Amino acid sequence: MPAPVYIDSHYARTLSVDAPRRALSGTVETEICVIGGGMAGLATALGLAERGHKVVVLEAERVGWGASGRNGGMVGAGFSLGLSAIERKVGRAHAKRLYQLSADCIPLMRERIETYGIDCGPIVPGVYTAWWYDAPDEVRRHIDKMNEMDATNIDFVPRQDLRELYRTERYYDGVYKEDGFHFHALNFTIGTAAAAESRGAIVYEGSRVTSLELAGDIKRVRTAAGEVRADQVVFCCSGYLGWLHPRLALATLPVATYVVLTEPLGDRLADAVRTEHGISDTRLANDYYRALPDTRLFWGGRISAVRRPANLEAKMISDILRIYPQLQGIKAEVAWPGTMGYSVHKMPQIGQLSPGVWYNQGYGGHGMNTTTMGGELIAKAIAAQDEEWRLFEPFGLPFAGGPVGPYVAQMVYWKYKLGDWWQARR
Ligand SMILES: Cc1cc2nc3c(=O)[nH]c(=O)nc-3n(C[C@H](O)[C@H](O)[C@H](O)COP(=O)(O)OP(=O)(O)OC[C@H]3O[C@@H](n4cnc5c(N)ncnc54)[C@H](O)[C@@H]3O)c2cc1C
After folding, report:
1. What is the CA(259)–ligand 1 centre distance, in A?
2. Which of 146, 326, 331, 399 could connect to 151 by a Cys-Cys bridge, CB 3.0–4.6 Å?
3. Mapping DSSP to helix (H, G, I), strand (E, B) and coil, where does residue 391 land?
4. Phi, psi angles (nearest 5°) of residue 245
5. Residue 162 CA, ligand 1 centroid: distance in Å
């Protein structure tokens, strides 16, 4: 079988370390087997290894090969589901606790980068959100809601200031969140694997799990060339799960989204973007982007649940030109897709299926910080019988529509786009 490789992307072209790991062969015994070597799986493995447990990670391709190594690299507190919706579902005190859990892991990520020397820079603090329509009161209400959740370092940004930095009249007022940052997501994921290994975890690549026996005290997890026998198993396969575990598959909606990297823009960059901070806008189907030190734009957006767009590079460049028509004529250097695992409630799925069988998935488009949070929750649950993961129980594993799920998701996306258009018109 050919050795697994990363898809072509800016991240894969700028790896700080590229040392493939061996595939599982033969039988290995351990305490915990983590399936999936994205940020959720590796954060779980690192959390367990730091607590002195024996862990094996099985990754079908390369660590960070999935969404974790293809994303926008923007780290910020919160979830895919908005805070007001979370509060409506679970009440204010519970929502506040959830928000704090998501915020607490941002300093933890920074601490791990420091402690383990993870080379994932440049790390640029501070992220903007731009309102797509003219509603300063709504921006202030948003800040009030964040303050109710004890969020820190959030500032109102008047439109004239925002438009100084981002030279478009598409944006109105915004907020600046100082605690967020952006970084090299694939280097972070690979660095997290190395950190787990430094604490005794074993990480196998090219080791797709093909069958499982989960009943009984000893679970058996099989790949084409080997078997892991473990007391506990954690599923962290997200949008790439396939049908490995039908119960989890039926609760997972794989949704594709895309990134483009432009050619270096030189002096032209300042016609459009005059800051190194990342930004996203408030549309439900939004863009998120940042300028790299060498004047290229790293731009994410679009989703599709059913069919991938033909001519991705041209489509992504047309998205940039919609915001910055003054950049007419710029070219793409590379564009790539990634698949997010969504749940219909847009919250992470963190929990236990049966004694010793855990899941940690469903982070959707807001997984940079929350995967570290989920990894810690599962690690604490296994290592110390901590029950904080139960805060996610109210969301559960609802049916995501099976084979029709992606079609429904596609329709929801089009509805979002229509809603964005209508909001902007109003
Ligand atoms: C283009 C894009 C842009 C994004 N931008 C942002 C952003 O800016 N900020 C943000 O917060 N979030 C962003 N996200 C979301 C974020 O990347 C994800 O939520 C997060 O990476 C999910 O991590 P994960 O470990 O759950 O999944 P993944 O990283 O997808 O990892 C799952 C892994 O499981 C492996 N696997 C699957 N099946 C098996 C099997 N049978 N055996 C062994 N291994 C298996 C896969 O190979 C894969 O490596 C973005 C996502 C995409 C795709």
Report:
1. 14
2. 146
3. helix
4. -135, 105
5. 31
Q: Which helix (H) or strand (E) holds 323?
A: helix 312-323
Q: State which H helix or E strand residue 137 sits in.
A: helix 136-148
Residues 20 and 43 in one domain: yes
Alpha carbon nearest to ligand 1 atom 50, residue: 71
* Residues 116-166 pLDDT 10s: 999 999 999 999 999 999 999 999 999 999 998 888 889 999 999 999 999
335 and 411: one domain? yes
In this structure, the residues whose C-beta lies within 6 A of any atom of ligand 1 are 35-41, 58-61, 65-68, 70-74, 208-209, 236-241, 244, 257-259, 288, 300, 338, 340, 361, 363-368, 371
Which domain does 27 fall in, by range?
A: 10-71+186-252+344-395
55: three-class secondary structure by DSSP: strand
State which ligand 1 atom lies nearest to the alpha carbon of 208: 42
Query: What are the pLDDT digits (tens) for 94-104?
Result: 999 999 999 99
Spatial distance between the Cα atoms of 79 and 76, rounded to a whole number of angstroms:
9
Cα–Cα distances (Å) from 47 to 50, 185, 204, 371, 417, in that order, read 5, 19, 18, 11, 39
Q: What is the pLDDT of residues 170-205, one digit of tens each?
A: 999 999 999 999 999 999 999 999 999 999 999 999
For residues 417 and 336, membership in a common domain is answered with yes
Q: What is the pTM of this model?
A: 0.96
Tokens, residue 142? 């948003």
Q: How far is CA 338 from CA 192, 364, 368, in A?
A: 20, 11, 14
Distance 100 CA to ligand 1 centre (A): 22
Highest-scoring range by mean pLDDT, 265-279, 283-297, 393-407? 265-279
Residue with tokens 């908005």: 82
Residues 6 or more apart in contact with residue 399 via CB below 8 angstroms: 250, 251, 344
CATH at residue 284:
3.30.9.10
Name the residue of 8, 240, 372 whose CB sits within 8 Å of the most ligand 1 atoms, as the mutation to test its pocket. Answer: 240
Shared domain for 141 and 279, answered yes or no, is yes
How confident is the model over 267-291, as pLDDT tens digits?
A: 999 999 999 999 999 987 799 999 9
